[in-house]
Amino acid sequence: MIQFIRLDHVLICIPEGTTAQAREFYRDVLGLEEIPGEHPSGAIWFKIADIQIHLREEAGGNYSKRHPAFEVANLTEAKQSLISKGLAIEYSSEIDGRERCFFRDPFDNRIELIEFID
Q: pTM of the full predicted structure?
């Protein structure tokens, strides 16, 4: 049996030719720290809490519900920050013990934010 410890990284696909725009969004809008280096397949990597996000250009693109989910300390503040930067907040089914919302990056990747509640 596999014993999973934690989420290490999430690969998010972006359209070809959009690495500069992705870098601007993830670094400047979301405020993530970029991990320098020559990464496989021209990917760009960012730190987010104790995991990593890897972004890599790929041909095609589907508007999908696939997504990574990240726990945040204060979901209300996170939503206000995203809204102030022009992002639309989406909601989904309720889950006991947590509040959550979704947003999409400029490439239609769906991202979930979660705050665990009492």
A: 0.77
